[in-house]
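Database export, one record per block. Field names are fixed; values are copied verbatim from the stored entry.
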Amino acid sequence: MRKLLHITFANTQAYTGGGQGTKRNIKGLKACLGENAVDCYTIMPIKEPHNMAFYGRRISEILKGFMGGLTQKHLDNIIHLLDTGQYTDLFIDSSMLGYIAKVARKRHPQLHIYTSFQNMEYDFISSSVWEGKDYTHFFLIPLTKHNERCACKYSDKIIVLNSRDASRVKEVYHKKADYQIPVWMTDNYDDSNARKQQKKNNIKEALFVGSYFFGNTQGLKWFCKEVLPHVDIHLTIVGSGMNAFANDITHSDKISIFSDVPSLEPYFEKADFAVLPITTGGGMKVKTAETLKYGKYIIGTQESVEGYDVSNKEATICHTASEFIEAINAYNRPYPFNPSSRQLFKEKYSFEAAIGLYKDMLNV
């Protein structure tokens, strides 16, 4: 009988890359193997005094290759679970935990090990350090590469989000990705009212959804400076911690900012379209799947739709400020709801679309 141990870490650090991706994978794994056939171990931060002994131990662990909050105590706990002999499969939900694959493989050669690349983390962290001028975290660049190399060497199967990440894994680590499982979401949206909604005023309502971190704010600041003054729209910005973004831009009556809202649904339903001026990052953008889920047209960069099979029915791709201005000024759809976006989500980026990929990966 199959039994799987799922390993991830708490999303509390600077470059964690995906609490939502972890939840998706757990749901997909349980749907295929059964609710009781999947156990989860989350690497939580250990609260202890930050004294000399603590820093000495952390430096020693980092030099071994530990990251993602992994400590020797956590590794011992994971190995103890595997030593019980009850697990046939190990799913490591971040390539930043590739060191675990190395230890598990050497101790349990028969174990089926899967590692999920929720980003090409080496590229993402390199970009965040250099472009974000976060030089104190430079050590994360070689540390990430070491873990991703371990993941590729000691895992039976590597899972990526899209063909770009597959190409980078092949290029950097000389390993062919075994499966591509794109970003997907549970379809809990009733679109019956949205389909009937008509545009209520002449001002176009644009929406940006995303948390306050470098990967979002870099492009958004550029958009507010180079595009927003030249278009007749109202921009609503919604996301965790986004109240801090008001300090990064010049005040404008054309912008409303909301942080930590209980539900995104009313903001999506009010919007005529979404703007996604994302210029950096890796993997696939969850906000893009969310935008498609709510049936919204996208005006964004190539990066914002990387990995998504969109056409001009769902998105306009812009490379310069003038292209954004032209696309927004030309946008004249009479209804805020875009059926083509909603249909694309249901066909390719919903749970129903993803479950077959998980079954194929697990061979069930």
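Remark 1: The CA atoms of residues 36 and 200 lie 49 Å apart.
Remark 2: The first strand starts at residue 4 and ends at 9.
End of record.
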